[in-house]
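Weekly modeling sync, notes
Attendees: S.R. (lead), two postdocs, one rotation student

Agenda item 3: backlog of single-chain predictions. S.R. asked that every request posted to the team notebook include the full sequence so nobody has to chase files. The rotation student volunteered to paste the first one in as an example of the format we agreed on. Action items at the bottom.

Example entry:
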Amino acid sequence: MQIDLNYITTYLFNTQKQIKEVGWFRNALYLFLLYKVFVYLFQFKALFSEQRFIYHHVKHINPVVDSVFFLNNHYSVLLALVFIFSVGILSIIGLLKKSNYITSLILWLLVMNLTSFLYPTLTAGDYLLNQLLFFNCFFMPQASKNSVWNDMKIALHNAALLAIKLQVCLAYFLAGYFKVIDDSWMSGAAIYQTFQIPEFSNALLASIPYSITVALTYFTIAYQLSFAFLVWFRPFKIYLFSFGIMQHLLIAFGMGLFQFGIIMCICYVLFLKYDANFKEPQSHKRT
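Predicted structure, as returned to the notebook:
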């Protein structure tokens, strides 16, 4: 038991993990937020104006929880614009490598407010984005002169990195599990039936033969159930990511669920490289 605790302690406190990959991940996340800002402004009349089709209501729970309902509780068109442009400005600050704990936390709260206000329009991608932005608050800390505080920053960075990976694995496994207990998926007809729905398909997808969609159905189930186990082994990653990217781009551009597909592809960045230089607990070198 002592060895396991030493291993965990060394992993968390030894050094910041995957700094390069985390940097790529954050850049992709900020670019995606800039895309969302563009969408919000392009569809501002429908989503945020006085003639919007989004219904909102005041919601009071407690001072902490209410922080993510500030836009709901004090709504005005001007305040919505302030929130949207603030997300854009903080995303640019992040791309310029000028963000810190405070700006990242504010960015997360702003996006939480916007998604809470737009609740009827949300997809799974929005929920996942909120989680990624929360963990993003703890990434890539600046070195501190206080060794205890510096150790805590490193531990938060490494814990957030691991948390995102585990969340992606859990999301895939649960998605696969619920497909297994769904008759339409186990019959092999789920994807074919989806491609026949005009709102979630197009003429090209609707023309795909039934036999191919059946194969895609079972490949999807196998992929989602196995991802959480195989992704930790380097030889399997190229195959997992190749199928995953193809699947999510199909979801994004073929079925119109753009956000979810792109967000999942962004998460893959954190799986590109593992900590090859990580040593056993006997080694406590700092970099």
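Discussion: group reviewed the output briefly. The two ends are 27 Å apart (CA to CA).
Action items: rotation student to repeat for the remaining queue; S.R. to check formatting next week.
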